[in-house]
């Protein structure tokens, strides 16, 4: 028999939170928040980084039990004293960082924690694990390879495995945190189709996203948080995205993209016939002082691979021209010595040491400049760190704060500050605003424009086409590892770039 889940009367409140307040040492993260989600509804929860979205999500998931206020589930009061309470009540939270076991199969991940016992209640009945996982997938309409390890799946398919895992238990409310942050556009459309189907079944869905443009396509209502307080709940049809931005920020988000400055004549970076077998095939371009050069293209077109090659992280050393001199770059150390800096897509995994203080992270790439005979004084580290933190408005301004405790936007500022301290000429940005709210994105855009205005060259890869169009002087469209077209930034539009990325039309 196919798995089923509770199906309350459509439109009736399933989860209601009243006056939720949550304090951390020195900080009130939530201040009397009211929120509810109904059956058959997708309810968006939005706000800047630090507005309280994650805290509210963790209250619902039982991770933060020390709150005041009231939680009601279908009219009955519930006390969330731990994750087991949330699990028992059918409250399922799918975090941005997926909680799958990479080497286990799809079926094993779906039934994880719900495995049927084997004969004489010894071990796990793997045949039944597969059978029950198949029933859940059939009920959801997902086509996934049951026996394939999830580490071999794309991010979009892994999201579906997480949803199927949530359905392996009784589920009343599904909370999704930034579900499309790492998804290619095709998978976003598929995920929306799944969520609409779940909504039609009567499920209550809470949808957290920084991508405001998605909301009209998927959400019924939206609740806006700012500084730990709810600014109200609105029908999605009653608000424009400008209205949502103003509520989130408390001001108009005007001119999010700074004006483009002049491009100099000096060639900072010259790339000729860049190769990575199977990924990049003969990419060539020049980057000038003061220029922001965008790389656009579909997932798999070779955008990130270009940055990795240039920064010495490709399969073999590459020859490039830096300030008119041909050099061989075979490692990130070579690239940094030649004046290149990479701000990676995975800032937490590749750009920072999360358990160490901000001060150490900020000076990590430039310790040789601070020390003498291999010795670095702690006072020097903190003085230099404070200078950079002030310059880049890193908050909180305490150099002793573990960098892992900072918001995503402030972590990104630390990565940029770390590389600015090495005095590079060329910055390589890979998805510079992934997972950031609209206000913090505007700050990162300003930083990029300031770097270009100071005479640096900036190469930027982004899946958000408005970002590439708004920042870049020129845009190179990659397709199947080659430069398919070049488009001036001020003349580009999203439809045009999508057509060129897919092999339709010609450059203008």
Percent in strands: 25-35%
What is the helix tally? 18
**Count of DSSP strands:** 20
Return the CATH topology of the largest domain.
Rossmann fold
Head-to-tail CA distance between termini: 57 Å
**Largest sheet data:** 6 strands, mixed
CATH class of the largest domain: Alpha Beta
Mean pLDDT: 87
What portion of residues is helical? 25-40%
Task: Describe, in plain words, how this protein is organized in 3D.
The chain is α/β, with parallel strands linked by helices and 508 residues long. It folds into four domains: 1-90 and 172-252, 3-Layer(aba) Sandwich (Rossmann fold), CATH 3.40.50.300; 101-169, no CATH class; 255-339 and 425-508, P-loop containing nucleotide triphosphate hydrolases (Rossmann fold), CATH 3.40.50.300; 358-423, no CATH class. 32% of the residues lie in helices and 25% in strands. The chain has 18 helices and 20 strands. The chain has helices at 53-60, 83-89, 106-110, 126-140, 155-167, 185-200, 215-218, 241-249, 303-310, 332-337, 347-351, 358-363, 367-370, 378-391, 408-420, 438-453, 465-471, 494-502, and strands at residues 13-24, 27-38, 41-46, 67-73, 76-78, 91-94, 173-177, 204-208, 221-226, 229-235, 267-276, 280-288, 292-296, 318-322, 325-329, 340-343, 426-430, 457-461, 474-479, 482-488. A hairpin with a 2-residue loop joins strand 9 and strand 10 (229-235). Helix 5 (155-167) packs parallel to helix 6 (185-200). The longest helix has 16 residues, at 185-200. The chain is globular and about 70 Å long. 43% of the residues are buried. The model is unreliable at 1-9 (pLDDT under 50).
């Amino acid at each position: 028999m196919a798995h089923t889940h509770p199906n309350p009367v459509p439109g009736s409140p399933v989860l209601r939170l009243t006056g939720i307040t949550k304090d951390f040492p020195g900080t009130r993260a939530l201040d009397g928040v009211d929120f509810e989600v109904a059956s058959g509804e997708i309810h968006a929860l939005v706000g800047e980084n630090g507005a309280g979205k994650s805290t509210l999500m963790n209250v619902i998931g039982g991770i933060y039990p020390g709150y005041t206020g009231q939680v009601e589930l279908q009219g009955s009061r519930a006390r969330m004293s731990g994750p087991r309470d949330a699990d028992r009540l059918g409250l399922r939270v799918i975090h941005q960082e997926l909680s799958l076991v990479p080497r286990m199969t799809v079926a094993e991940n779906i039934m994880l924690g719900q495995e049927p016992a084997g004969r004489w209640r010894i071990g796990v009945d793997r045949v039944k694990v597969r059978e029950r996982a198949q029933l859940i997938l059939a009920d959801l309409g997902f086509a996934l390879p049951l026996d394939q390890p999830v580490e071999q799946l794309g991010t979009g398919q892994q999201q579906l495995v997480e949803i199927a895992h949530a359905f392996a238990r009784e589920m009343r409310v599904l909370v999704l945190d930034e579900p499309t942050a790492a998804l290619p556009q095709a998978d976003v459309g598929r995920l929306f189709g799944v969520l609409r189907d779940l909504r039609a079944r009567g499920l209550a869905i809470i949808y957290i996203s920084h991508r405001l443009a998605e909301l009209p396509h998927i959400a019924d209502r939206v609740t806006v948080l700012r500084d730990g307080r709810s600014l109200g709940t609105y029908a999605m049809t009653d608000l424009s995205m400008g209205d949502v931005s103003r509520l989130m920020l408390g001001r108009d988000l005007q001119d999010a993209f700074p004006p483009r400055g002049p491009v100099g004549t000096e060639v900072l970076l010259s790339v000729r016939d860049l190769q990575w077998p199977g990924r990049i095939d003969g990419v060539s371009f020049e980057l000038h002082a003061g220029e922001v050069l965008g790389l656009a293209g579909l997932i798999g077109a070779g955008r990130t691979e270009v940055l990795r090659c240039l920064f010495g992280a490709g399969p073999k050393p590459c020859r490039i021209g830096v300030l008119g001199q041909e050099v061989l770059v075979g490692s990130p150390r070579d690239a940094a010595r030649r004046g290149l800096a990479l701000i990676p897509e995975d800032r937490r995994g590749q750009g920072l040491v999360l358990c160490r203080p901000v001060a150490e992270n900020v000076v990590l790439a430039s310790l040789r400049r601070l020390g003498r005979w291999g010795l670095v004084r702690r006072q020097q580290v903190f003085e230099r760190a404070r200078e950079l933190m002030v310059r880049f408005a890193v908050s909180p301004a305490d150099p002793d704060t573990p960098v892992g405790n900072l918001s995503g936007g402030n972590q990104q500022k630390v990565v940029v500050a770390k590389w600015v301290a090495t005095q590079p000429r060329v910055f390589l940005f890979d998805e510079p605003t992934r997972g950031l709210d609209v206000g913090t994105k505007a700050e990162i855009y300003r930083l990029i424009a300031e770097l270009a205005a100071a005479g640096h060259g900036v190469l930027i890869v982004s899946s958000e086409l408005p970002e590439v169009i708004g920042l870049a002087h020129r845009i190179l469209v990659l397709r199947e590892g080659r430069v398919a077209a070049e488009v001036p930034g001020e003349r580009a539009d999203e439809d045009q770039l999508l057509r060129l990325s897919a092999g339709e039309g010609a450059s203008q």
